[in-house]
Specification:
Elements lengths: L11 H21 L1 H4 L4 H31 L14 H18 L5 H26 L1 H9 L13
Helix pairs in contact: 1-5, 3-4, 4-5, 5-6
Length: 158
Amino acid sequence: MEEKKQSYFGQGPKIFRPAFLWAIAAALGTWLWPEVLRISNPAGALSGWILIVLGGALYCWGLKHMVKAVKSGQLDTSGPFSLVRHPMYSAILVFVFPGIALASGAWLIVGSSVVGWLAFRRWAQTEELKLVEIFGQAYQEYRQTTPMLIPFTKANSE
């Protein structure tokens, strides 16, 4: 019988590949046509850096908990996982991409969050089914009480 094991990467590559491609295209477009695609706003730049730092902190916090959980084979519902079921995806989609858009003035980069969210909606279910397979009823209960991606929203509402 094959042992059920968590993955460090989950569906992340499938989710972020299109989002990163959008970000690269948006940055290139902004570089080529700055008069049309760049917005310069010092307050926006500061806000962007705050979002990037918050997103980076959430990502690192989530990564630390996730590595520990995968190594132990346990379901972690504490720390960042008490806020959302997918804190590292949340960090990038909700904080980092919008932060980069604000900090750089390349407003099209916000589209990376949209593209990433669409991919997340497509692939997160696969990841969640795998976690149900591994952790059973404990993960089912966790899904009922903890939002997927956006902290402080109703569970299963995203």
